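Q: Could you fold this chain for me?
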Amino acid sequence: MIEIKNLTKKFGSHVSLDNVSCSFKKNDSVALMGANGAGKTTLIRSILGYYHPDSGEVLINGSNPIKERIKVLQDISFVPQLPPPIKLSIQELMHYISVSANVEVELIKHYANEMKLDISANLSKSFFKLSGGMKQKLLIAISLAKKSSIIIYDEPTANLDPKARDDFYRLLRKNEDEKTLLFVTHRLEEVQELVNRQIYMDMGKIISDEIF
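A: Sure. Below is the predicted structure, expressed as structure tokens.
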């Protein structure tokens, strides 16, 4: 589903990705690890089509995420470590997601409720003004409601309390079939039961890739 071939990305003289090659297939559940600056975020942003590679290529279900970005993003849900500064109200945001990504609003509400986020009491509130935990819960709810074949989570539980983390992983266990899951994480112990593959990056290279 995701093919990365000889991917190199530089920022000035700094090599963020150094000739990286790997692939992620259906039912892969991957923990992507490494120190800050190892290249994890650059790899994810390359998959999402944010960055133009200096050499090599990324293919998502056979499509280029830069040239065919709209098509590619229809297959991907992404929850960043830092929620974006969205100024829309929750109601406006859900409407936008519903129209732009063909996601059922009621399904977003369902998953938000499963994450113990009271949507109905906060519809008029600006997403920007929500607490970090509330933002993260809503983004997780949207990612699950979208029914994407690829879901990427960048430190998804950073703003969640222990109970919300338990809810998140419980929902993932119910929804992991026929998907590719990528977790950028420093908490391997949290995702260890969910993943079947661990990739460790350093200095822009994949140092180890363990499948079990």
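A (continued): Residues 23 and 34 are 18 Å apart (CA to CA).
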